[in-house]
Design brief:
The structure is a single chain. With 584 residues, this protein is mostly helical. It folds into three domains: 57-91, no CATH class; 124-197; 201-225 and 232-583, no CATH class. Helices cover 74% and strands 2% of the residues. It is built from 27 helices and five strands. The chain has a three-stranded mixed beta sheet. Helix 12 (260-272) runs parallel beside helix 25. The longest helix has 34 residues, at 501-534. It is globular. The relative contact order is 0.13.
Length: 584
């Protein structure tokens, strides 16, 4: 603590400084280690993919030329336009053999129904037996797609013969082409049920466990935890994460949206609240270490061009509605229901209003919330995410809500990025695109929220009259892994712009990210959620649930956010910026 001398006649002012940053912190502090480990994986991903573009990438200009020519020729998307677009989308770095090997190595357990072992192993015989009942349906779907294509060609030829000047013929052709696209999609789904693939994920999972143990173990050793102790405990954490994935992929659980984060916490809680987490596992129970590394990887997925692609309405909804909801929810917690813990209040508010777990971790670090408070906030988020993921698309369908509005609504209110994508896909491609993009825009606020909370806590909450806070104190409190998150976003956004939209989609989005770092990030999150359960005891939650205030706070904030963002979504997309909506 440093003291500043006051002027004569003025009260003495105490300037609070809790410590200082040294070079040693750059490799001894968990936040910085997460940054370096995240950067290492991003660099590895770039080195793997960028030198190996797919051969068909050279044909992208040809597909673009066809699409441009067809768009100029007809007032609707022709068959040739769709064929060129489909061929272009098929050009992905992840379709190459080396990329498939990486994806197999990192793959999580597969879908299953009654036999859990199906999630990690499926023989050729079993695959054929599973696909056999769907053979007839697949053949019928294929025939239906071919018939729909024939009708589409006939309708398009009639429109072309009239020089595309007959509105009724154009409308009929567009309708027939849309029907063909739907039949084609149905045929693809039916074929996937018929041509069931065999697999054996067990060797890959064992190899992944060893690799992750070494990877994270080296980081822990540098920070001071014996490498051997970490490696001994890690397999237990990894196995629980695998079980969480298996629970997620069970048919009924998948249908209802109970994802691996919820199961990972539950399985960890079952151990910590019964036999207790064994001491030999505890060195590998590193919640924030795993999730902070994953959040650095998440930063690379926040690309500026995707933020700008949806325009001003999406930015307004994500960057105006979200902070308004956060501030109002925090105010409600303090002034109306009088939450006894300000740190719990702000952590729940950020978790609910920004983007769930990621924002909760950053906010808890900035205000120095207790471990139990962070766990409680995350637990509430998991429950409400599952409810909203099923309830919101069902409600949107019931009231016949436009896809774009529904996507904007779900993208700004459902906490988990994966749940947002699932909910959007339930309604259609436009809803999926808008929902995922707005959630991505909202994720940018992770860093902004952490900084704002650090400043507010230093200036208002942790100060008493006669005290001021040094700017260094804000730096000490600011979660350093957020710097890695922001740096990764900036670097990959610049790389995305320099490569061009098409090549970036092939090499970055469907290469480095989807083919490597995103899959790794989800594993890191699974490990983190498992650790949350392993280090949490129900007895510690008693004081926080007193009077039901945390649940009341979450329900209030989520209810307000649901109504507010729906209203703003309608105003922005259909009144203020209708041209953006028309272009989507």
């Amino acid at each position: 603590m440093a003291e500043a001398k006051a002027a004569p006649g003025e009260p003495e002012v105490v300037v609070i400084e809790s410590g200082k940053t040294t070079l040693r912190d750059l490799y001894k502090k968990e936040d910085w280690m997460a940054v370096w480990m995240g950067f290492f994986l991003l660099i590895v991903g770039l080195l793997i993919y960028l030198p190996r573009p797919p051969e068909k990438a050279a044909e992208i200009p040809k597909y673009n030329a066809i699409m441009k020519e067809e768009a100029a020729k007809a007032p609707f998307k022709t068959i040739e336009w769709h064929n060129a677009s489909s061929a272009k989308r098929g050009v992905r770095a992840t379709n190459q053999d080396f990329a498939k090997t990486i994806q197999n190595f990192l793959a999580s357990p597969s879908d299953w129904n009654t036999n859990p072992f199906d999630a990690v192993y499926r023989s050729e015989e079993t695959a054929k037996a599973m696909g056999a009942p769907h053979k007839e349906a697949a053949e019928k779907a294929k025939a239906a797609a071919e018939a729909a294509l024939a009708k589409a060609k006939e309708a398009q030829a009639a429109a072309a013969a009239a020089g595309y000047k007959d509105a009724s013929l154009n409308a009929a052709a567009e309708k027939a082409i849309d029907a063909w696209q739907k039949a084609k999609s149905d045929a693809s789904k039916a074929e996937s049920k018929y041509k069931v693939k065999a697999y054996n994920r067990i060797p890959y999972l064992i190899g992944l466990c060893i690799l992750l143990a070494i990877f994270f173990g080296i980081g822990k050793a540098i920070m001071g935890t014996p490498f051997g102790q970490f490696v001994v405990g890690f397999p237990a954490v990894f196995i629980l994460a695998v079980l969480a994935y298996m629970a997620e992929t069970q048919a009924l659980m998948k249908y209802w949206g109970f994802g691996f984060p919820l199961w990972a916490i539950v399985f960890g809680l079952l151990i910590s609240n019964t036999i207790g987490t064994p001491k030999w596992i505890q060195p590998a129970v590193c919640t924030e270490y795993y999730i902070k590394t994953g959040l650095v990887l998440l930063g690379a997925e926040i690309l500026f061009n995707k933020i700008l692609a949806i325009g001003k309405p999406g930015i307004f909804i994500a960057w105006i509605c979200t902070p308004v909801t956060l501030i109002l929810t925090y105010w409600f917690g303090q002034k109306v229901i009088k939450m006894p813990s300000k740190t719990l209040n702000i952590t729940i508010s950020a978790d609910m209003s920004v983007c769930g777990v990621s924002a909760a971790i950053a906010t808890a670090a900035a205000c120095r919330a207790k471990k139990e408070e962070l766990t409680l906030a995350i637990g509430l988020s998991m429950v409400f995410t599952a409810i909203c993921m099923v309830g919101q698309p069902a409600f949107a369908k019931l009231v016949n809500m436009p896809e774009i509005l529904a996507g904007a609504w779900m993208g700004s209110t459902i906490d988990s990025t994966g749940a947002v994508a699932a909910a959007g896909a339930f309604l259609g491609q436009k809803a999926l695109y808008v929902a995922a993009t707005i959630k991505m825009i909202q994720n940018v606020l992770i860093g902004v929220t952490a900084f704002g909370v650090a400043v507010y806590w230093c200036a208002k909450v942790d100060c008493t009259p006669g005290q001021s806070v040094s700017w260094w104190e804000i730096w000490y409190r600011f979660p350093k892994f957020v710097i890695g998150f922001i740096a990764a976003s900036i670097f990959f956004s610049i790389l995305d712009q320099s490569m061009g939209k098409d090549m970036s989609a092939v090499m970055i989005d469907h290469g480095v990210l989807r083919g490597f770092t995103r899959i790794a990030r989800e594993w890191f999150f699974a490990l983190a959620f498992t650790c949350i359960g392993l280090e949490t005891n129900f007895r510690e939650f008693g004081p926080y649930f007193k009077g039901g205030k945390p649940i009341t706070l979450y329900v209030f904030g989520q209810s307000f956010q649901l109504c507010f963002t729906l209203l703003m979504g309608y105003i922005m997309f259909y009144i203020v910026f209708p041209e953006v909506t028309a272009a989507i």
